[in-house]
Amino acid sequence: MGRLFQVTLEGKIYSCRHCKAHLALSDDIVSKAFQCKHGKAYLFSKVVNVTVGVKEDRLMMTGLHTVADIFCVKCGSIVGWTYETAHDESQKYKEGKSVLERCKLDAPDGTNYWVSHEAHIGGSDPDDV
Question: How do residues 23-76 score in pLDDT, each as one tens digit?
Fold first, then answer.
């Protein structure tokens, strides 16, 4: 097996909760208003140190999207998904961006986000608030 190369970020870093691999910068957050089945999720314009899974169509709260799950390159944990195609014109801004589930991340200040018992089940798009 080959050597694993990872990108090292500088600044306010969101990292994998399991292995601490750098995943994204706070400056690259597009929205904190997303929800996933485990609770909060953030939309990022850029993520690093992830591998992309198989593309699939998913019906989400804001319509049909072609997405692919993304996995931490170091430990293999699923950390979110990336938007390949938004089928609704009003959702095109998501294309090429990635969502990281907050419960899978360590925040820049070192804190974790724990899943609450009230976490929304079945959603994976922003709140309509």
Answer: 999 999 999 999 888 889 999 999 999 999 999 999 998 999 999 999 999 999
Contact 50, 71 (CB under 8 A): yes
Q: What is the CA radius of gyration of the chain?
A: 14
- 45 vs 129: CA distance, rounded Å: 21
Nearest to 35 by CA among 114, 87, 101, 88: 101
Tell me how far apart the alpha carbons of residues 87 and 99 are, in angstroms, rounded to a whole number.
Answer: 17
- For the record, the structure tokens of 113 come out as 């986000």
pTM above 0.90, yes or no: no
Alpha carbon of residue 27 to chain centroid? 15
